[in-house]
Design the sequence.
């Protein structure tokens, strides 16, 4: 098959490219979003990401950086591709873009759908105290992450200190193992297993209150809040809190006694073991 690859990072493209090459499919173009919404401002750090993608893209493959949806379907259609493979794209594809390839589009999502549809499923799994996450590959339709499931597997453990490098490395391994089977099922015309809408949940962007700690909440809720914020910022920031009349950013906490500042929560103590001025 001739395929168009869609991803948020150079590493994401590399994983998809590697699978396609291994199973005999031919990528003809890369598609990347430089903004979080069509026509929106270029997101912080987009230039360095695009530079890394450009440095690593194989010779002869185009890199598409659309500013809007206006010509997206027409541009994709002109490649005469069979399938679009997506792993991280913040825009909702219009139906015309999903029809621009003969076999439609499939998406890699880092949750066990229909749980945690939306842009940041891993962050929400950490916030909710889930012990693990999984990877789902599904057909794309007009809504976010709601199409038929081609294949999925759980088993990526969320440690107490969730390191992004370890999680994304594990996700890459799952993609490398699951995507070939998903592509074979697409080529066979398998529509995917319909998702149960009643079981669906949404993992949208965190609300403003998430970035402030209320010591009136339970210790586990606050601990997971800090874990999720740490993961989302790659350890560089955390939710704000007032401790002894000082405003700080809480980077790491412990549910067990540890060196650090002990604070009282609704149901017991929590220890702040790493923080920064807030």
Sequence:
């Amino acid at each position: 098959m001739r395929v168009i690859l869609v991803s948020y990072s150079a590493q994401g493209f590399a994983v998809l490219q590697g699978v396609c090459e291994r199973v005999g499919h031919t990528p003809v173009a890369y598609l990347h979003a430089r903004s979080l919404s069509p026509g929106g401002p270029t997101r912080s750090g987009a230039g360095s990401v695009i530079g890394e993608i450009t440095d690593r893209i194989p010779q002869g493959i185009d890199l598409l950086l659309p500013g809007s949806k206006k010509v997206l379907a027409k541009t994709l259609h002109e490649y005469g591709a069979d399938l679009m493979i997506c792993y991280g794209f913040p825009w909702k594809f219009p139906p015309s873009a999903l029809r621009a390839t003969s076999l439609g589009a499939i998406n890699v999502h880092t949750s066990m759908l229909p749980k945690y549809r939306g842009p940041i499923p891993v962050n929400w799994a950490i916030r909710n105290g889930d012990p693990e996450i999984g990877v789902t590959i599904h057909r794309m339709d007009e809504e976010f992450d709601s199409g038929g499931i081609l294949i999925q597997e759980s088993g990526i453990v969320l440690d107490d200190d969730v390191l992004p490098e370890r999680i994304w490395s594990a996700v890459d391994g799952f993609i490398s193992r699951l995507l070939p089977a998903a592509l074979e099922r697409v080529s066979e015309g398998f529509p995917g297993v319909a998702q149960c809408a009643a079981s669906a949940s949404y993992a949208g962007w965190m609300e403003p209150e998430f970035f402030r700690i209320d010591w009136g909440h339970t210790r586990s809720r606050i601990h997971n809040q800090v874990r999720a914020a740490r993961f989302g910022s790659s350890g560089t920031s955390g939710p704000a809190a007032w401790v002894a009349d000082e405003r700080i950013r809480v980077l790491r906490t412990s549910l067990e006694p540890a060196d650090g500042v002990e604070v009282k929560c609704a149901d017991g103590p929590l220890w702040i073991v790493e923080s920064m001025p807030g």
Observations:
- The longest strand covers residues 268-277.
